[in-house]
Amino acid sequence: CNIYGTIDFSIIFPRVTIEEGAIVRDSIIMPGSHIKKGAVIEYAIVGENVVVEENVTIGARPEMITDKSQWGVSVIGPDVTISEGTVVKPKQMVAGDI
Prior knowledge:
Radius of gyration: 12 Å
Distance between the termini: 25 Å
Low-confidence stretches: none
């Protein structure tokens, strides 16, 4: 792995790159994924070979959600690219490029 960003309470599999300025908390990042600078991933599962472009937000901490029925783990399927600036909400599942 190439880890230059911040990781907290997460599982990072081999061949993952987390660029400087990226934050990964309470998440699972599968092999071969690339998290670019400015991305924030919280309470999420990111599949194999995913590219998370700059300034993407995936998931949220439960204490940040007022209506707890709207909170859950975000899931990104394998081989997906998440475009720059995209917000993936809690409980959202992504199976194709967005």
